[in-house]
Write a structure and sequence with these properties.
heterodimer; A: 242 residues; alpha/beta; Rossmann fold; 24% strand; B: 291 residues; mainly alpha; globular
Chain lengths: 242, 291
């Protein structure tokens, strides 16, 4: 008897876009638990649109997309999404701890009280992202990099099976980028599937699958295949130094 | 001079009670208006009730019922134009807002007491607050607090990012409309006191003052409630002693408190930056000595 592995994410001939205007067409990909898919492309290439569709914020225009065997948007407790530049927190009177704790709202719903377990998860996420010493500071007083770490901690508190990260390394220095790589590796080690959008080619180093985008799928496959010079030239107009 | 007017004058006592109730309601709703950046929508809602109130006054019905109808129509309009039309949100809402305002003025112009009615709707009639009005205002306060407590989590997520709210399992449309409902209830309950034109000042100025100092939403709401209530007291005193319009005096006091608070926080920030720079300068000097 053939054993069946439940796919974390399964897209077949997927078309994504806004109000029936396609941004990227014919996306086909299948990810197993613990996989890392990196979406690379220039601004407007469709990276964020694919992530938003996977998060259930946009409906697929055509084709088929399943997340953990369900249509998108059905499993908020099991799928966590980090939006690109949630800048409104720059002015909000919220402490770092409160912003991170917002990650538990998907589990708490409207009425459930925060438990000790929820508190522990929040503290653990702040420690993992190195912001526990700033827990009581207003987020608007932090640097861009520290704010990004706060949002990463918020995503970790979801304890989700799928992480959809839109440019998680934006605004981070070398240490911050290293931290993101380590966090992704540790999440994958416990079976979490990660989809990450980025501009940076080095973010693709540890990916199982890389998708190069330019309002269409230029290439898809393991990094050594998807990032060949001819595809990079087609996508960015340059090749990476050897 | 500070307490005596309220002891000897029942109109002033009722006005103070009504003003404080409005201040408390506005503190709760205004906090989310400021957090979510809905000031313009709040303004549009405040003016959108004008045709409803004007129609109600002409037919001799309670202004509150007219305002409720007006706000329902405006909320549906704001919700529709924000979703359907290919215009920026503020253009669509701006058009709706002036349209409703013009309609309200047109309807009011049919009244024999046109100027008096229009002035009452736009600027309120605080000294005309009755015990029945107070009961309506208490009901509005309870409704607004109940909405804020039940929807506090989705409201917070919406203030940070709509995508975050949606991916956390909360319907953006449902909770956005619930927030508009909360603002509409506040406007309907407040127009008698400060008028549709000035209610925005009570929604925004105290909450914005709270945002300057607070690190938590609950603190921001508390500061807003204190500033709003204090502005009501000071505004009424100013109005009483100098024979000025009560609603305008209250709103101007709230805006003045915000201006003072903003100046204070800017000065403190500048001093802190200066001290931090001097500290770094001293460190770099001591480093040079070690070398």
């Amino acid at each position: 008897m053939k054993s069946q592995i439940l796919k974390s994410i399964s897209a077949d001939q997927l078309g994504v876009g806004y109000s029936k205007f396609p941004v990227v067409d014919n996306v086909s990909v299948s990810l197993e638990p613990g996989a890392l898919l990196v979406l690379i492309g220039t601004n407007g290439s469709g990276k964020s649109t694919i992530l938003k569709t996977m998060a259930g914020l946009l409906q697929p225009i055509k084709g088929h997309l399943e997340i953990l065997g369900q249509p998108t948007g059905m499993l908020p407790k099991r799928v966590a999404y980090l939006p690109q530049h949630p800048i409104s927190t720059h002015t909000l009177p919220l402490r770092v701890h409160d912003v991170v704790a917002m990650g538990r709202f998907a589990h708490l719903g409207l009425f459930r009280r925060t438990s000790q377990l929820d508190q522990n998860i929040v503290i653990d996420a702040m420690k993992r992202t190195g912001i526990e010493t700033q827990a009581n500071e207003p987020i608007r007083d932090l640097s861009g990099g520290q704010q990004q770490r706060t949002h990463l901690a918020q995503v970790l508190t979801r304890r989700a099976e799928i992480l959809l990260l839109d440019e998680p390394t934006a605004g981070l220095d070398i240490n911050g980028r290293k931290l993101v790589a380590e966090l992704i590796a540790s999440e994958r080690a416990r079976g979490v599937t990660v989809v990450m959008a980025t501009h940076e080619l080095q973010d693709a180093e540890n990916a199982n699958t890389v998708m190069l985008l330019a309002q269409r799928v230029v290439s898809i496959g393991p990094p050594e295949v998807a990032l060949r010079d001819e595809y990079l030239r087609e996508c960015f107009g340059f090749t990476q130094p050897h | 001079m500070f307490i005596e007017p309220f002891v000897n004058n029942e109109f002033l006592r009722l006005a103070l009670a009504g003003g404080v109730l409005v201040a408390l309601t506005c503190a709760v709703a205004g906090t989310f208006v400021v957090l979510r950046g809905l000031a313009f929508v709040g303004d549009a809602l405040a003016h959108g009730v004008l045709p409803g109130i004007a129609t109600a006054l002409i037919f001799g019905v309670s202004g509150i019922i007219g305002a409720a109808f007006g706000s329902l129509i405006m909320m549906a309009g704001v919700s529709l134009v924000s979703r359907r039309f290919r215009l920026s949100g503020d253009t669509a809402i701006g058009l709706l807002f002036v349209g409703m305002l013009a309609l309200g003025v047109m309807i009011t112009s049919r009244s024999r007491t046109f100027v008096g009615d229009l002035s009452r709707i736009l600027f309120g009639e605080l000294l005309g607050v009755t015990s029945r009005d107070l009961i309506s205002q208490v009901c509005a306060l309870i409704i607004v607090i109940a909405i804020a407590i039940i929807a506090r989590r989705p409201f917070l997520l919406l203030s940070v990012d709509e995508g975050l709210a949606s991916s956390s399992g909360f319907s953006v449309r449902l909770f956005h409309n619930l927030m508009l409902t909360m603002i509409a209830v506040t406007v309907v309950a407040s127009f008698q006191t400060v008028g549709t034109l000035l209610v925005l000042g009570m929604l925004i100025a105290p909450a914005a003052t709270g945002a300057l100092f607070a690190r938590r939403i609950s603190t921001m709401m508390t500061v807003a409630a204190v500033v709003g209530s204090f502005s009501t007291y000071v505004g009424l005193l100013v109005s009483y002693h100098f024979d000025l319009a009560a609603g305008a005096s209250i709103v101007l006091t709230a805006v003045f408190i915000f201006a003072v608070a903003a100046t204070y926080t800017e000065i403190i920030k500048t001093i802190k930056i200066k001290q931090s720079n001097e500290h770094e300068h001293q460190h770099s000097h001591s480093g040079a000595h070690i070398r």
